[in-house]
Design a protein that fits this description.
Elements lengths: L1 H16 L5 H10 L5 H12 L6 E3 H10 L6 H11 L6 E3 H8 L5 H14 L6 E2 L1 H5 L8 H4 L5 H12 L9 E2 H12 L5 H12 L2
Antiparallel strand pairs: 1-2, 3-4
Helix pairs in contact: 1-2, 2-3, 3-4, 3-6, 7-11, 7-12
InterPro entries: Ca-bind, EF-hand-dom_pair, EF_Hand_1_Ca_BS, EF_hand_dom
GO cellular component, one term: organelle
Protein name: Calcyphosin-like
Length: 206
């Protein structure tokens, strides 16, 4: 179902793009027009450009990142977005904060069900999902690649975690932030809270 949601969301985002004048919303919609991983993809581009690992970008890097990701944004608009995110006016933006703000807003009900799923997976309760946590929740033996001998149990778990992990920094651990980011993308394609909650309950047997 996720592929269908993705397509619907992309079509919806393209439609809304022609209507909105808010620069941040325009950037968000351009990302979502690429599917639920669109915002994550922009994060990856910024990550690559952050040569000194400062996790911040100056205006020049910001514009280059947008261009590299083929975002249709003129210089004035980029300046306006940059100003909004450069809260203390020091000429740089924190890109974790930037990506969180770019994330489509979600209702309290949606955030709660996402956290329920996270807590179910986070067996050890330390706020990070690891392969160890998954052993108790997720049965790898039903996975086709495990059954035909291609993958070990650990490889099945790792591939599962990689879905939620930050694309530029796959470390086999999934934080609440990464889990939320992933589902914010999915959530953007689902209109009603009720439907979103039913989908999450079915997916995670909550």
């Amino acid at each position: 179902g996720t592929a269908r949601h993705d397509r619907e969301m992309a079509i919806q985002a393209k439609r809304n793009l022609s209507r909105t004048t808010d620069p941040v919303e325009r950037l968000r919609l351009q990302c979502l027009a690429r599917g639920s991983a669109g915002i994550k993809g922009l994060g990856r581009v910024f990550r690559i450009m952050d040569d000194d690992n400062s996790r911040t970008l100056d205006f020049k890097e910001f514009v280059k990142g947008l261009n590299d990701y083929a975002m249709m944004i003129d210089k004035e608009e980029a300046q306006e977005i940059f100003r909004i995110f450069d809260k203390d006016g020091n000429g740089t933006i924190d890109f974790d904060e930037f990506l969180v703000t770019l994330r489509p807003p979600m209702s309290k009900a949606r955030k709660e069900i996402i956290m329920q799923a996270f807590r179910k997976l986070d067996k050890s309760g330390d706020g990070v999902i690891t392969i160890e946590d998954l052993r108790g929740v997720y049965n790898a033996k039903h996975h086709p690649k495990y059954q035909n001998g291609d993958w070990t149990e650990d490889q099945v778990f790792r591939a599962f975690l990689d879905n939620f992990d930050s694309p530029y920094d796959k470390d086999g651990k999934v934080t609440t932030e990464e889990f939320m980011n992933y589902y914010a993308g999915v959530s953007a394609s689902i209109d009603t809270d009720v439907y979103f909650i039913v989908m999450m309950k079915n997916a995670w047997k909550l």
